[in-house]
């Protein structure tokens, strides 16, 4: 909730959000909801992509935005072989180009990717 106006590259932010949503659908629990939450303050816009699913281990979270990296359970998955593992890497690079932060956290309740977009640089 709040004002979500700002001056950013809309197409790139759409790609960033799309990559996070696709990731949530791919790796989340199929019958559980995936949520996107948008909030705005005077200083920043924040959006979070939240889903239920297996906990992402700390060692995987530490590398989750690295190029060509997938979680250990996906490394030898036939379906995963058709994907290059660049979605989260690209999302991070788009965030960095906008002066944003992109973070991930995961626990037994949910996995959350958080993007914080400053209103001014």
Q: Mean of residue pLDDT? A: 86
Radius of gyration: 14 Å
Sheet bearing the most strands, described? Answer: 4 strands, antiparallel
CATH topology: Heat Shock Protein 90
* Helix/strand order, N-terminal first: HEEHHEE
Which regions are unreliable across 5 or more consecutive residues at pLDDT < 50?
Answer: none
- Per DSSP E runs of 2 or more residues, the count of β-strands stands at 4
Number of domains: 1
CATH architecture, by name, is 2-Layer Sandwich
N/C terminus separation: 22 Å
Q: What would the principal axes of the Cα set say about the shape?
A: globular
Strand numbers in spatial order across the main sheet: 1-2-4-3
Strand content: 15-25%
Main structural class: alpha+beta
Give the SSE layout.
Blueprint: H1 10-27, E1 34-40, E2 44-51, H2 58-61, H3 87-97, E3 101-106, E4 111-118
Antiparallel strand pairs: 1-2, 2-4, 3-4
Structure report:
By secondary structure, the chain is α+β, with helices and mostly antiparallel strands. The chain has one domain: Histidine kinase-like ATPase, C-terminal domain (Heat Shock Protein 90), CATH 3.30.565. It is 27% helix and 24% strand. It contains three helices and four strands, in the order H-E-E-H-H-E-E. The protein has helices spanning 10-27, 58-61, 87-97; strands at 34-40, 44-51, 101-106, 111-118. It has a four-stranded antiparallel sheet with strand order 1-2-4-3. Helix 1 runs antiparallel to helix 3 (87-97). The longest helix has 18 residues, at 10-27. The protein is globular. 19% of the residues are buried. The mean pLDDT is 86.
